[in-house]
Amino acid sequence: MSTLSIKIGAVLDGSFNAAIKGSSGQLSSLGENIRRLDSSLKSVSKFKQLGSDILASKKSWKGFEDQVKSLAKQIKAVEKPSKTLKAEFDKAKASATKAKVSYLKKRDSLHSLNEEVRKSGTNIKSLVRDQNKLGSSLEMLRSKYSKLGSVISQQQSISAKKAHYRSQVIGMIGSLLSVAVPIKIAVDFESAMANFKAVVRFSLDKETNNKMIMELGQELKKLSREIPISASELAEIATSGGRLKFSKDEITQFTKAVAKMAVNFGMTGEEIGSATATLSNIYGIMPEKIEDLGDTLNHLASNTTVDAKDMMSAMTVAGGAAKQFGLDVHQTAGLTFTHKYKKASKIANSYI
After folding, report:
1. Which residue from 24, 123, 138, 237 has the fewest beta carbons nearer than 10 Å?
2. pLDDT tens digits, residue range 236-268?
3. b/e per residue, 46-68, with b = 16+ CB within 10 A?
4. pLDDT by residue (tens digit) across 72-83?
5. How far apart are CA 117 and CA 112, in angstroms?
6. What's the longest Cα–Cα distance across the chain?
7. Is pTM, for the whole model, over 0.85?
8. Taking the domains of the chain in order of start, what are their residue ranges?
9. Torsions phi, psi of 304, nearest 5?
């Protein structure tokens, strides 16, 4: 499920990532160009404003200077100038001084701005001359910036929606799997039990027979939670036991013992059930003795390089002949082991 989710996520995700990265780079570049043009236009505007202010300040200063000169002539023309005339002269002189200071300050500011722009590698006069072009370029860049920003927003919106849909799809698949897997398990088990029912008949009474089979089915489900093997495989093993005409309790005992062998030997329920049923039929092994056979095979396999699955296959072939020679199933297991590997074995000899 996690692997499937990752694959689906990889397919549904990332289709816009490269586009968004590229667009973001363009947006950043446009933004930088806009900032530079905007800074240039601000410098031009500031330069023009300072120039205008300087002219106004100079005009004001010269106006007060002319007024001072006019009042000075009037004072010289009379023997005793009036207090009012003197006051007007003093006021005009103070205003002229103040206007001059203002003019000089603004002139210095203009020189400083011009020097600052010059150091940045730009000529203020050329900026002033090209102001209209700069304004047009700035507006064009701002328009592109706005459109590109809109495109990126749309891409991000679509990407967010895709991520949302992806999570929904993954969630839906997870939900379907969570439902489908138990359904398949149930169907497989019911199919295996149908095969069992076709082979085994516990009672001539149909109702009683169905009830006993249902009870066995419940026992197999319970057993599947104790032994790591599916309920459907347990039903296949039970079917093998049913062919031997065992009772319901004997089938349960047979199934439990054979299921343990299946886990230990790495065999499927059908393989181990069929092989064990064959040996049980040849040697007349009852369910309570099945575990002894499992212990024998497990002992041989665990202490050598013999594969228990191969041994069981060989025993089902040689079992009939070995029985005629008077060998029991444990001796047959040891003999099969010795013959298979063409060498004497202390482990095998102990069972012959």
Report:
1. 123
2. 999 999 999 999 999 999 999 999 999 888 888
3. ebeebeebbeebbebbeebbebb
4. 888 888 878 888
5. 9
6. 167
7. no
8. 8-122, 123-149+163-179, 180-345
9. -140, -170
